[in-house]
Amino acid sequence: MEVGERCPAGASLALEVTCRHQRAACYARNITLAPLPDSTTIHTLHHAFMSFPSPSIALRFRSSVATVALLAPFVIGCAPKADSGKPRVVSVSKQINEFIYAIGAEDVLVGRDLTSIYPPQIKQVPSVGYHRALSAEGIISTKPTLLITDGNVGPEPVLEQVRKVGIPVVTLAPGGTVDSAQALLTKLGQQFHREHAADSVLALWRAGMDSLWRDTVQWSGPKRPRVMIIHFGQMINNYLALKRGGSADAMLHWAGAENAIDSVGGMARLSPELIARAAPDVIIATDVGFDRYGSAEKFKTLPGVALTPAGQSDRIYRVDEQELMYFGPRTPAVVRKFAAWFHPSLYGGRATAGRATLTPGT
Amino acid sequence: MVEVEHVSYAVGRARILHDVSVRFQPRKLNVLLGPNGAGKSTLLKIATGLLTPTAGLVRYMLPQGARALDTFPVDALARTRAVLSQHVEVAFPLAVEDVVLMGRYPHYGRTPTARDLEIVAAALDLVGMTDFRGRVYPTLSGGEQQKVQLARVLAQIWNEGESPRGQKCLFLDEPTSNLDVHYQLHLLEIARGLRDVDCTVIAVLHDLNMALQHGDAFFLLDGGRVVLETEDATTIPRDLLERVFRVRADRAVDSETGESFWRFRL
Amino acid sequence: MIPRTRRGHAGVYLTLVGLLAASLVLSAAVGAFTFTPARIATLTAQLLGWVPAAPADALDRNVFIQLRLPRVLLAGLTGAVLGVSGTLMQGLFRNPIVEPGLVGTSAGAAFGAAIVFVFGAGTFTRPLGTLAVPVLAFAGAFAATMIVYRLSTAFGKVHVFTLLLAGIAVNAVCGAGTGFLSYIARDPQARNITFWNLGTFTTADWRGVTLVAICFVVCFGWSLRAGKALNALMLGEEEAAYLGIDPRRLVMQLLVANTLMVAVATAMVGVIAFVGLVIPHVLRMLKSSDYTFLLPASALLGAVTMEIIDVVARLIIPPAELPIGIITAVVGAPVFLAILLRQTRQGGAWLQG
Predict the structure, then answer these.
(1) d(CA B210, CA B233)
(2) Sheet-wide strand order for A89-91
(3) Do the chains contact at B77 and C245, CB–CB below 8 Å?
(4) Dihedral of the CA atoms C115, C121, C122, C126 (nearest 10)?
(5) What is the pTM of this model?
(6) Which of A176, B93, C75, C83 could form a disulfide with C310, with the two C-beta atoms 3.0–4.6 Å apart?
(7) How many angstroms away from the CA of C49 is the closest CA of chain B?
(8) Of C235, C244, C284, the CB nearest to B75
(9) Which of B 102-141 lie inside 8 A of C, CB atoms?
């Protein structure tokens, strides 16, 4: 972005801006600081924007007191927690939380579920428990004005209990397609009056997807590498393999691979026979499951893994669950990351940490 | 008095008692004798009302008339007759006096009366276990436990001077089998003391000599039939004993007391 | 039983009632929302209409009345149910290591409830509506208990050994059934089973409280009259029969009452183990084995214990809650082992039927 260019997030131009390097994603965020008594003080709006796929960009604009004066009402009006009439939202869905941060509405968030850990700032928001083991009192004690779920919550009576106390509960099902996920983002934009931000995020997302689908052709050859995605189910304390159908599988497909598991629907419990029959060329493990072993080398000790082509050629990669389990603005970047892993020949050699990926420390 | 009339008992195809008719007199220690499997315990249980005979009936002769056992309501029966079993196992830490108090259960509803508590004390005294009243039952020796059970059983049929005087029955089912000779004799002595208070006492005893020494009326069973009924121990024929018990029997006479007893060998 | 110890009983009752009152207040006060005793009093007064309801208190009042109060009551009732149930079972089977879990009651209830969770929207549950879970839980618990009972009274007597072994078998079958159901269950249903299987009071509502309360009062009242008979049963079935008690009828009646109580409570809160085992044992150690004392005392002590456990469940990992079953297992299993050790050391008395 150049000086004087219109910021898609709607922020004004003459502002001090620092970009924070995020993972392959695009965000527009407004953080306002509490207005200081001295009127000549500069309010700094941090504006993080990164156009895909280039690395970090630092943008500088000259600050202007006049702009500050212009923006002051806007700033004060958006100060979080200073106003008692402000909405207080508890959201117990990873996807919805990520989207809320994407459209810059995170000020309203007063509670999240335990497993929502993206973006990292969300960890400062208090957790109300695991989304399948919620406690009504825990949610209500944050004094929310709204509870949002994506339908994947338990135990069921908790929603009823929250309603009984007078707190509205909204369930926004994300659907299983990119279109429905994008519709969800739009809906959230409307919910939190951040339509503008939502629109810009969507525009970038769509552009990313279009570009992705154009590039998909070069990755899809007659022989697709077989990829297995290994997830860790915390409720059942066991490893699972993702089957076909579903967002992760779609991403595999776009990246020019095929799911090593032949059957459709949900997840299968991992067993050495299953792994042997699947014989994946590449294994992708989600964060919790991977971190239990700590490294790709140790992960090979999971029964059955060492004998697979993936294990033998050391093609085991770590990915965050939230990059994989639903469609979001980061999806284009994630798929490209996969493509680099799956088709090392196209990217000039083995795709390892840092190279041709935007995810450091894989 | 307890009348057993033409009682038969069978379980499935096995016939345990064949047409037994006996009469147990009050004020006597009636003893059932016989080898294992003769049906003594079964006959006893039928006489107590625990088992129902497949044929025949049992009658209790009460002052107000005879009463067939199957017409007795359970609680009235419990107040009329009591049974001391061979061994009562209690798995919980009960106090001795609480065990004896259970003998009074058929007599009171929710809470025991003062009279009930008096009877408990008297029963303990009769068996010589007053000092044990606060002890925990499972910690007692076999003999002590059996005496406590006897106290309970006595408390159950304690004669309270009802008018007209009820006639109570006391059944003893091999009560001395696990006891040493001291306790055996003590128990039998108490049993004998009871028959003097208008009680019908019926006992199954294993030790033949002890039975003959203490009993008043003897009923010898073999294979589910009564083969001998007598009140005179000396008239028991030797060859009958040998046949029933499948042993060799010799009668001997105690040179000091003049009492006769049996010596057995295979 | 004997007057001088009866006065001691009164002392124990008073202590237990006092403890219950204290634990009720504690349980009502503690949690993600904290209510001081004064606040509790105010809100209760508002609830009863003695004091006009202040609109500013609306959220607090709603939370207290809709969430906290039913939960406190449900915890107390469940504790009472489990305590009495343990006492009853130990009296009926003359064995100190018996509780509803052992005879298949809890497992059967769990299986019945799992059926509703997995096949929930089926036609046979729709007419029952929200009563589907307790009704099917009772059906499951009753079927399991009856199977065990029938197996162990084959020849007219209750054989304790057979009963315990049959209980193990039925437990295994019900457990396998529930496990299978949770394996084939689609995700939302499986969530319900796994969460509920460990016992929780978070989903308490007035409906559940009323249901459990009614069942408890009826069944407990019924079983209170059997105190003397249970005492006599300690001597053995024959001895009890000689004392004028019909052991088979007694066992049957009390089994039905017990199963009803436990099944309904399990349907509401899930599977909670060890309470029925430990409560009567503690009371026996502290005071007396007399069932006319044990039955009411175990209701009180059970309620107190459950309130305290529920408070702990709320405080350990706020704002989330630990399942109750985990706490009772952590506390109860060592106690169970200690009882086992003691019994074995004292000899095989407890093995006799």
Answers:
(1) 11
(2) A109-112, A89-91, A146-149, A169-171
(3) no
(4) 100
(5) 0.75
(6) C75
(7) 41
(8) C244
(9) 102-103, 105-106, 110, 112, 117, 120, 138
Give the chain A residue nearest C208 (alpha carbons).
A157
As a whole number of angstroms, the distance between CA A96 and CA A174 comes to 8
Between chains, do C235 and B112 touch, taking CB under 8 Å as contact? Answer: no
Domain spans in chain C, listed from the N-terminal domain onward = 78-352
Secondary-structure class of domain C78-352 per CATH: mainly alpha
Which residues in chain C have their CB less than 8 angstroms from residue B79's CB? 244
Taken in order C87, C92, C93, C95, the sign of the CA dihedral is: positive
Contact C228 B105 (CB under 8 A): yes
Of C66, C67, C319, the CB nearest to A129: C319
- Does C289 contact B94 at a Cβ distance shorter than 8 Å? yes
CA distance C156 to C237: 11
Q: Of A141, A158, A266, which is closest to C319 when you measure between CB atoms?
A: A141
Angle, alpha carbons B106-B107-B110 (nearest 5°) = 90
* Residue A119: strand, helix, or coil: coil
Within 10 Å of residue C295's Cβ, how many Cβ atoms?
A: 23
Encode burial over A182-206: b for 16+ CB neighbours within 10 A, e otherwise.
bebbbbbbebbebeebbbbbbebbe
| Among B98, B138, B156, beta carbon nearest to C1 | B98
**Euclidean distance between CA atoms B261 and B217, whole angstroms:** 16
In order along its 266 residues, chain B shows pLDDT tens digits of: 888 989 999 988 888 899 999 998 888 889 999 988 888 889 999 999 888 899 899 998 887 778 888 888 888 889 889 999 888 888 788 889 899 999 999 998 888 889 999 999 999 998 888 999 888 898 888 888 988 999 999 999 887 765 455 578 899 998 877 778 888 888 888 888 887 777 889 999 888 888 888 888 999 998 889 988 988 888 888 888 888 888 888 888 888 877 778 888 88
In terms of Cβ atoms closer than 10 Å to its own Cβ (0-12, 13-18, 19+), residue A362 is middle
Integer Cα distance of C231 and C1 in angstroms: 11
Residue at C38: amino acid letter = A
Give the ranges where chain C is alpha helix by DSSP (H): 3-29, 37-48, 58-62, 69-93, 105-118, 132-152, 160-184, 187-196, 206-224, 227-233, 237-242, 247-269, 275-286, 291-316, 324-346
